Amino acid sequence: MDRILQVFQNKLICSICRNYFIDPITIDCGHSFCRPCFYLSLPNRSVLARCSECQKAIQQRDFHTNVCLKQMVLIVRQARLWQFLRSRDNRCGIHMEAKQIFCEDQRSQLCLHCSTSQEHEAHRHGSVEEAAEQHREKLLKTMCSLWEKCCENDRNLNVETVTSRSWEELPPGVECAPTANLLWPTNLLRFILLVYVTSKGEAIRAEYDQLAPFFYMKEHHHLERLQREGKEIFYQLKDSEARMAQKRELLRGMYTELKEMYHKPDVELLLDFGDILHRSEAVCVHMPQPVKAELTAVTIPEMMTRFNLFKEATSLVFGRTHSHVFLQGDVISLSIGCIIQGAPCAFPQSECFFYWNTQTFTTGRHYWEIEVGDIWNWALGVSCDDWIMMNINLHKAFYLLGCAKTDMHHNVFTTCPLLLQYVPKPIGRVGVFLDYEDRSVTFVNVAQSSLIRRISYCSFSPRLRPIFCCSHF
């Protein structure tokens, strides 16, 4: 019988921590673990997780509590507690009775006579068994809340790390970016956002080259401001990344401490509980937030006047398709497609309002504006006329500016190549300037008369047409 009982108890032990299960979960392959142990053993969400027992891939990430296992663990814990409470080691030294009462006020274990004495009669009392389970439920609730903070911080840290890397990677073939003439100090070249700031500077210079020499000083101040803000944002990103990494260690350390407290025997848990819940709350205060990596929108004089010389009225035709415009992790994903009669919808969760121009462009310079208001999840620009209506290759068919919402934040991006744009979210009208011979597409914030992005060296098809879509989830 003892042998059977031993086998039964072993089945209730987590293979990671070698203790009885805490809030047990059963994963895809059928193996069970403590929820805290499973969470702490997971790699980041971009890496395929595997079961530590059988090494099978874990597809699911959200698991329900295995209620049956949890109840069996409770039975075993209660049996061990009852055995201890009846032992000689648990007798009151004065009354020689079992100490089965727990005093909340003095955090002490009492026998029935002591609990009714003048010293303790006004205190809050309860059975050791009930008090232990109540404290464990408090720990579980706190651990759940704390893990949400861990995940929030990990998401923010991932965003900050990706953004920071994009500000420090040197573009292929560029050693000191001499053509940008931004005068970056050599020892900062590998640290500053050369990819974005260099291309932004070149686009700004290209616009000023169209103006009279009178505007040279404005150009100089504009580029100086660009490099100054680039440095400031880079250092803010690195500081924020460090603070989030430190917060990650504090949160996970606190989570591990709560888990270890939960594993303690009932009486030891009650006596050692102390202020652990208050300390857990304190760790969650002042959660670091991602830096708003935005360069100031600066007006380029006479730019809108020049573009308006080529302004054309757009006649966009309305259509409707299932599509999506969104960000997933650190990769921008954009898909556009029309409904084919009788074909299943690739993205049924979103509806896209889709517009394109009846006129096509085969030469010349053209400028038009589109009202985007203050909405999210839109994309506009130029499409090649030979695009396939479903499953489009964005790198060959579209030159777009888009604005996508993720959580409570927004991201502005362009395609060809797919890049984040560190500019304020455009509100109102967005201008598109197509220079067919120069093989470039320029996007401008009309309200602020500022440059958003200039895409150069485009691989245009023989015919181009304006396009706009906005999706709603």
TrEMBL record:
Pfam families: SPRY, zf-RING_UBOX. One of its GO terms (molecular function) is zinc ion binding. Residues 294-473 form the B30.2/SPRY domain. It comes from the Eukaryota. PROSITE patterns: B302_SPRY, ZF_BBOX, ZF_RING_2. Residues 14-55 form the RING-type domain. InterPro entries: B30.2/SPRY, B30.2/SPRY_sf, Butyrophylin_SPRY, ConA-like_dom_sf, SPRY_dom, TRIM/RBCC, Znf-RING_euk, Znf_B-box. Keywords: Metal-binding, Zinc, Zinc-finger. Residues 87-130 form the B box-type domain. This is Uncharacterized protein.
